Amino acid sequence: MDAREQPIGVFDSGFGGLTVMRSLIDLMPNESLVYIGDNGRYPYGNKPAAQVRGFAVELAESLVRDHGAKLIVVACNTAASVALDVLSASLTVPVIGVIEPGARALARVTHNGRVGVIGTVGTIASGAYDTAIEATGADVELTSAACPGFVEFVERDQTDGEEVTLLAQRLLSPIKEAGVDALLLGCTHYPYLAPVIQRVMGEGVVLVSSANETAFAVRELLDSRGLAAPASHAATRRFFSSGDIDTFASLGRRLLGPELVEVSPWHSGASS
Ligand code: DGL
Protein backbone atom coordinates (compact mmCIF):
# COMPACT_ATOMS: atom_id res chain seq x y z
CA MET A 1 0.00 0.00 0.00
CA ASP A 2 1.06 3.61 -0.65
CA ALA A 3 2.73 4.79 2.61
CA ARG A 4 0.71 8.00 2.41
CA GLU A 5 -2.50 5.99 2.74
CA GLN A 6 -1.41 4.31 5.97
CA PRO A 7 -3.28 5.54 9.06
CA ILE A 8 -2.13 7.95 11.72
CA GLY A 9 -2.00 6.10 15.06
CA VAL A 10 -3.35 7.95 18.10
CA PHE A 11 -3.47 6.86 21.73
CA ASP A 12 -4.60 8.16 25.10
CA SER A 13 -5.29 6.74 28.53
CA GLY A 14 -9.03 6.86 27.75
CA PHE A 15 -11.50 9.29 26.23
CA GLY A 16 -9.43 12.49 26.46
CA GLY A 17 -7.52 11.93 23.23
CA LEU A 18 -10.81 12.10 21.37
CA THR A 19 -10.39 15.89 21.53
CA VAL A 20 -7.26 15.43 19.41
CA MET A 21 -9.13 13.01 17.12
CA ARG A 22 -11.85 15.64 16.60
CA SER A 23 -9.24 18.21 15.55
CA LEU A 24 -7.44 15.70 13.28
CA ILE A 25 -10.70 14.71 11.55
CA ASP A 26 -11.75 18.33 11.07
CA LEU A 27 -8.38 19.49 9.76
CA MET A 28 -7.50 16.42 7.67
CA PRO A 29 -10.72 14.62 6.74
CA ASN A 30 -8.96 12.38 4.21
CA GLU A 31 -6.46 10.90 6.70
CA SER A 32 -7.20 7.41 8.05
CA LEU A 33 -6.95 7.22 11.84
CA VAL A 34 -6.62 4.44 14.39
CA TYR A 35 -7.27 5.30 18.04
CA ILE A 36 -6.56 3.27 21.16
CA GLY A 37 -8.06 4.40 24.46
CA ASP A 38 -6.35 2.61 27.35
CA ASN A 39 -9.43 2.87 29.57
CA GLY A 40 -8.61 -0.49 31.16
CA ARG A 41 -5.51 1.04 32.79
CA TYR A 42 -6.76 4.62 33.10
CA PRO A 43 -5.98 6.99 34.81
CA TYR A 44 -2.34 7.70 33.96
CA GLY A 45 -2.26 11.05 35.75
CA ASN A 46 -1.48 9.64 39.19
CA LYS A 47 0.70 6.68 38.17
CA PRO A 48 4.52 6.51 38.39
CA ALA A 49 6.28 7.87 35.30
CA ALA A 50 8.05 4.55 34.57
CA GLN A 51 4.74 2.69 34.46
CA VAL A 52 3.13 5.25 32.13
CA ARG A 53 6.22 5.06 29.91
CA GLY A 54 5.78 1.28 29.62
CA PHE A 55 2.12 1.67 28.65
CA ALA A 56 2.98 4.31 26.05
CA VAL A 57 5.63 2.13 24.40
CA GLU A 58 3.26 -0.84 24.26
CA LEU A 59 0.42 1.18 22.72
CA ALA A 60 2.63 2.94 20.16
CA GLU A 61 4.28 -0.34 19.12
CA SER A 62 0.87 -1.93 18.66
CA LEU A 63 -0.27 0.94 16.43
CA VAL A 64 2.81 0.55 14.22
CA ARG A 65 2.95 -3.26 14.19
CA ASP A 66 -0.76 -4.11 14.02
CA HIS A 67 -2.07 -1.17 12.00
CA GLY A 68 0.93 0.06 10.02
CA ALA A 69 0.68 3.57 11.50
CA LYS A 70 2.78 6.06 9.52
CA LEU A 71 2.93 8.51 12.43
CA ILE A 72 2.14 8.28 16.14
CA VAL A 73 0.26 11.00 18.02
CA VAL A 74 0.60 10.78 21.78
CA ALA A 75 -2.80 12.32 22.54
CA CYS A 76 -2.31 12.22 26.29
CA ASN A 77 -0.41 14.93 28.10
CA THR A 78 0.67 12.65 30.91
CA ALA A 79 2.10 10.05 28.52
CA ALA A 80 3.69 12.70 26.29
CA SER A 81 5.31 14.38 29.30
CA VAL A 82 7.18 11.23 30.33
CA ALA A 83 7.50 9.08 27.19
CA LEU A 84 8.01 11.25 24.12
CA ASP A 85 11.80 10.91 24.24
CA VAL A 86 11.77 7.12 24.54
CA LEU A 87 9.16 6.78 21.78
CA SER A 88 11.03 9.07 19.42
CA ALA A 89 14.21 7.06 20.00
CA SER A 90 12.67 3.61 19.63
CA LEU A 91 9.99 3.89 16.92
CA THR A 92 10.67 3.73 13.19
CA VAL A 93 7.95 6.30 12.46
CA PRO A 94 7.73 9.96 13.55
CA VAL A 95 6.07 10.79 16.88
CA ILE A 96 4.21 13.94 17.90
CA GLY A 97 3.06 14.71 21.44
CA VAL A 98 0.64 17.29 22.72
CA ILE A 99 3.10 19.21 24.90
CA GLU A 100 5.32 21.20 22.49
CA PRO A 101 2.57 22.35 20.08
CA GLY A 102 0.50 23.62 23.04
CA ALA A 103 3.46 25.37 24.65
CA ARG A 104 4.35 27.13 21.38
CA ALA A 105 0.76 28.39 20.97
CA LEU A 106 0.64 29.59 24.56
CA ALA A 107 3.81 31.63 24.16
CA ARG A 108 2.41 33.09 20.92
CA VAL A 109 -0.99 34.29 22.19
CA THR A 110 -0.04 36.02 25.45
CA HIS A 111 0.09 39.82 25.51
CA ASN A 112 1.12 40.39 29.11
CA GLY A 113 3.75 37.62 29.26
CA ARG A 114 2.00 35.77 32.09
CA VAL A 115 0.73 32.33 31.09
CA GLY A 116 -0.77 29.33 32.87
CA VAL A 117 -0.87 25.58 32.35
CA ILE A 118 -3.18 23.10 34.03
CA GLY A 119 -2.83 19.33 33.84
CA THR A 120 -2.80 16.11 35.79
CA VAL A 121 -0.56 15.63 38.82
CA GLY A 122 1.82 13.53 36.65
CA THR A 123 2.06 16.11 33.87
CA ILE A 124 2.66 19.07 36.15
CA ALA A 125 5.14 17.15 38.32
CA SER A 126 7.14 16.09 35.24
CA GLY A 127 8.07 19.72 34.52
CA ALA A 128 7.58 19.01 30.81
CA TYR A 129 5.71 22.27 30.25
CA ASP A 130 8.42 24.31 32.00
CA THR A 131 10.95 22.74 29.63
CA ALA A 132 8.76 23.21 26.55
CA ILE A 133 8.01 26.86 27.37
CA GLU A 134 11.69 27.52 27.98
CA ALA A 135 12.51 25.89 24.63
CA THR A 136 10.28 28.43 22.83
CA GLY A 137 12.71 31.14 23.95
CA ALA A 138 9.76 33.42 24.76
CA ASP A 139 10.06 35.80 27.68
CA VAL A 140 7.03 34.50 29.63
CA GLU A 141 6.30 33.68 33.22
CA LEU A 142 4.57 30.32 33.67
CA THR A 143 2.25 29.40 36.54
CA SER A 144 1.18 25.74 36.64
CA ALA A 145 -1.47 23.92 38.62
CA ALA A 146 -2.46 20.28 38.84
CA CYS A 147 -6.21 19.75 38.69
CA PRO A 148 -6.96 16.38 40.27
CA GLY A 149 -10.65 15.57 39.88
CA PHE A 150 -11.25 17.31 36.53
CA VAL A 151 -10.68 14.13 34.52
CA GLU A 152 -13.08 12.16 36.70
CA PHE A 153 -15.86 14.69 36.06
CA VAL A 154 -15.36 14.31 32.29
CA GLU A 155 -15.28 10.51 32.49
CA ARG A 156 -18.60 10.68 34.36
CA ASP A 157 -19.94 12.92 31.58
CA GLN A 158 -20.48 15.67 34.19
CA THR A 159 -18.96 18.58 32.30
CA ASP A 160 -20.86 21.45 33.93
CA GLY A 161 -22.79 22.26 37.10
CA GLU A 162 -22.17 23.48 40.63
CA GLU A 163 -19.87 20.69 41.81
CA VAL A 164 -17.32 20.97 39.00
CA THR A 165 -17.53 24.79 39.12
CA LEU A 166 -16.66 24.82 42.84
CA LEU A 167 -13.71 22.51 42.20
CA ALA A 168 -12.56 24.71 39.31
CA GLN A 169 -12.75 27.84 41.47
CA ARG A 170 -10.52 26.22 44.08
CA LEU A 171 -7.98 24.65 41.71
CA LEU A 172 -7.69 27.62 39.36
CA SER A 173 -7.26 30.26 42.06
CA PRO A 174 -3.39 30.32 41.96
CA ILE A 175 -3.56 30.76 38.18
CA LYS A 176 -6.09 33.58 38.49
CA GLU A 177 -4.01 35.28 41.16
CA ALA A 178 -0.97 35.18 38.87
CA GLY A 179 -2.86 37.44 36.42
CA VAL A 180 -2.36 35.23 33.36
CA ASP A 181 -3.99 36.24 30.07
CA ALA A 182 -3.59 32.82 28.41
CA LEU A 183 -4.22 29.38 29.88
CA LEU A 184 -3.24 26.09 28.25
CA LEU A 185 -5.54 23.17 28.86
CA GLY A 186 -2.66 20.74 29.36
CA CYS A 187 -4.76 17.62 29.62
CA THR A 188 -6.70 16.13 26.77
CA HIS A 189 -9.86 15.89 28.89
CA TYR A 190 -10.01 19.56 29.80
CA PRO A 191 -11.44 21.00 26.56
CA TYR A 192 -14.71 19.33 27.59
CA LEU A 193 -14.65 21.57 30.69
CA ALA A 194 -13.80 24.73 28.70
CA PRO A 195 -17.12 26.52 29.42
CA VAL A 196 -16.64 26.07 33.19
CA ILE A 197 -12.94 26.99 33.07
CA GLN A 198 -13.68 30.07 30.95
CA ARG A 199 -16.38 31.26 33.36
CA VAL A 200 -14.07 30.84 36.34
CA MET A 201 -11.07 32.49 34.66
CA GLY A 202 -13.08 35.34 33.12
CA GLU A 203 -13.56 36.57 29.56
CA GLY A 204 -10.14 38.22 29.32
CA VAL A 205 -8.23 34.95 29.49
CA VAL A 206 -7.63 33.04 26.24
CA LEU A 207 -7.95 29.26 26.61
CA VAL A 208 -5.53 27.31 24.43
CA SER A 209 -6.36 23.70 23.58
CA SER A 210 -3.46 21.44 22.78
CA ALA A 211 -5.78 19.39 20.54
CA ASN A 212 -6.00 21.97 17.75
CA GLU A 213 -2.33 22.89 18.01
CA THR A 214 -1.32 19.25 17.80
CA ALA A 215 -3.42 18.73 14.68
CA PHE A 216 -1.66 21.68 13.02
CA ALA A 217 1.72 20.17 13.96
CA VAL A 218 0.65 16.80 12.50
CA ARG A 219 -0.36 18.39 9.20
CA GLU A 220 2.92 20.27 9.00
CA LEU A 221 4.94 17.12 9.65
CA LEU A 222 3.00 15.02 7.12
CA ASP A 223 3.42 17.72 4.47
CA SER A 224 7.13 18.16 5.14
CA ARG A 225 7.80 14.40 4.89
CA GLY A 226 5.57 13.79 1.87
CA LEU A 227 3.37 11.54 4.01
CA ALA A 228 0.01 13.33 3.65
CA ALA A 229 -2.79 11.16 2.24
CA PRO A 230 -3.79 12.02 -1.32
CA ALA A 231 -7.07 13.95 -1.68
CA SER A 232 -8.65 10.90 -3.31
CA HIS A 233 -7.96 8.67 -0.28
CA ALA A 234 -11.12 7.33 1.37
CA ALA A 235 -10.37 7.75 5.07
CA THR A 236 -11.23 5.09 7.64
CA ARG A 237 -11.47 5.64 11.41
CA ARG A 238 -11.02 2.74 13.78
CA PHE A 239 -11.39 2.76 17.54
CA PHE A 240 -10.04 0.35 20.13
CA SER A 241 -10.32 0.34 23.90
CA SER A 242 -8.71 -1.77 26.60
CA GLY A 243 -11.75 -1.08 28.80
CA ASP A 244 -15.42 -1.83 28.37
CA ILE A 245 -16.11 -1.34 24.67
CA ASP A 246 -19.82 -0.61 25.06
CA THR A 247 -19.12 2.20 27.52
CA PHE A 248 -16.41 3.51 25.21
CA ALA A 249 -18.79 3.46 22.26
CA SER A 250 -21.62 5.32 23.99
CA LEU A 251 -19.66 7.98 25.90
CA GLY A 252 -17.06 8.23 23.15
CA ARG A 253 -19.70 8.95 20.53
CA ARG A 254 -21.19 11.70 22.69
CA LEU A 255 -17.74 13.25 23.16
CA LEU A 256 -16.35 12.83 19.62
CA GLY A 257 -19.37 12.76 17.35
CA PRO A 258 -20.86 10.43 14.75
CA GLU A 259 -17.49 9.26 13.38
CA LEU A 260 -17.22 6.88 16.32
CA VAL A 261 -19.26 4.00 14.95
CA GLU A 262 -17.71 0.83 16.27
CA VAL A 263 -15.24 -0.01 19.05
CA SER A 264 -13.09 -3.15 19.18
CA PRO A 265 -11.23 -4.55 22.17
CA TRP A 266 -7.51 -3.93 22.59
CA HIS A 267 -5.61 -6.30 24.85
CA SER A 268 -2.35 -5.50 26.56
CA GLY A 269 0.40 -7.92 25.55
CA ALA A 270 -1.42 -9.16 22.44
CA SER A 271 -1.91 -8.06 18.85
CA SER A 272 -5.21 -6.26 18.28
N1 DGL B 1 -5.17 11.69 29.20
C1 DGL B 1 -4.59 12.21 30.43
C2 DGL B 1 -3.85 13.50 30.10
O1 DGL B 1 -4.01 14.11 29.06
C3 DGL B 1 -5.67 12.49 31.47
C4 DGL B 1 -6.35 11.26 32.02
C5 DGL B 1 -5.48 10.38 32.87
O2 DGL B 1 -5.09 10.78 33.99
O3 DGL B 1 -5.21 9.28 32.42
O4 DGL B 1 -3.07 13.93 30.91
Outline the structure in words:
The protein is α/β, with parallel strands linked by helices. The chain folds into two domains: 3-97 and 212-265, 3-Layer(aba) Sandwich (Rossmann fold); 99-210, 3-Layer(aba) Sandwich (Rossmann fold), CATH 3.40.50.1860. The protein has eleven helices and ten strands. It has a six-stranded parallel β-sheet, with helices on both faces. Strands 6-5-7-8 form a four-stranded parallel β-sheet, with helices on both faces. Helix 3 links the parallel strand 3 (71-74) and strand 4 (95-97). It is globular. The two termini are 20 Å apart. The model has no long low-confidence stretch (mean pLDDT 95). D-glutamic acid is lined by residues 12-14, 16, 42-45, 76-78, 119-120, 123, 151, 187-189.
Main sheet makeup: 6 strands, parallel
N-to-C series of helices and strands: EHEHEHEHEHHEHHEHEHEHE
CA(first)-CA(last) distance: 20 Å
Count of DSSP-assigned helices: 11
Strand content: 15-25%
Indicate the CATH topology of the largest domain: Rossmann fold
The overall pLDDT average reads: 95
What quaternary form is this? single chain
CATH class of the largest domain: Alpha Beta
Name of the CATH architecture of the largest domain: 3-Layer(aba) Sandwich
